[in-house]
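We modelled each protein-ligand pair independently. The example shown here corresponds to the flavin-adenine dinucleotide entry; the chain sequence is given first, followed by the ligand as SMILES.
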Amino acid sequence: MNIVVCIKQVPGTTQVKINPDTGTLVRDSVEAVVNPFDEFAVEEALRIRERIGGTVKVITMGPPQAETALRSVVAMGADEAHLVSDRAIAGSDTWATSYTLAKAIRTLGDTSLIICGKQAIDGDTAQVGPGIAEMLDLPFVAWVRKVEEIDESKIRVERMMEDGYDVVDTPLPALITVVKEINEPRMASLKGKMRAKKAKINTITAADLDAEEHKIGLKGSPTQVLRSFVPERKSGGEKITGELPELVDKIKTTILDLGVIK
Ligand SMILES: Cc1cc2nc3c(=O)[nH]c(=O)nc-3n(C[C@H](O)[C@H](O)[C@H](O)COP(=O)(O)OP(=O)(O)OC[C@H]3O[C@@H](n4cnc5c(N)ncnc54)[C@H](O)[C@@H]3O)c2cc1C
């Protein structure tokens, strides 16, 4: 079975600062790591390979330095590493990222299962997994906390819900996103680290993608960031009290005064 795991390189902190002038993330002096949820995705792929055999391919879209992230999951045991990197794809929003990754995954041959993390700890949108599934017209299950059964043609998973879990059967190929409850990612062995150092990283450029030019990169991104800022911290607050009808009116007036809703 061919399994593709999407991993993203992210700053190793959830306290990323934003440059107020440019609106971009201040990445200097912040260590780059593999998105933690993606380590659970890699671990699950390795466990499936151990259960039923197959190949685990890891893929990331990012600048050349994202190669480091790929090597660290090759050290865990992934078989192949693919880096989608090109100036033409810089500035992609989640739509363009999903489109580009879907096109890149197509270049990797037949794939039975794609695994993504629940979300990335920097962008935090949780859109890319479902986006790839939609672009590839695949069934999709989010928030998977357990792979109960899997064979070449189908998978049964537990999907985490707020008040319990669903058991979901889906035919393969399919895409799942995983939560941290699914497993405990393994540490890379010394042998794995040595292998990772020498591993070949396959670079995929825009020219390899068979992508429509107007759908990639900044130009292909339907959303635009107009301004990024850290919300001002406000202290104090006002306690609104009273009987129900009066309370509703007071809350309504307060919200309107804040200018959040017009
Ligand atoms: C409105 C908007 C505009 C943006 N504009 C820009 C911009 O101009 N320039 C810019 O650099 N970024 C921009 N971004 C950020 C960029 O879209 C995200 O970095 C990227 O799309 C991933 O989204 P995310 O971090 O929310 O991932 P999520 O959707 O939270 O990630 C879920 C999972 O998808 C997979 N995944 C996500 N990203 C990747 C990846 N790159 N490679 C492999 N797997 C991945 C991982 O498995 C991850 O766990 C923008 C984002 C938004 C929402």
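The chain has one domain: 2-215.
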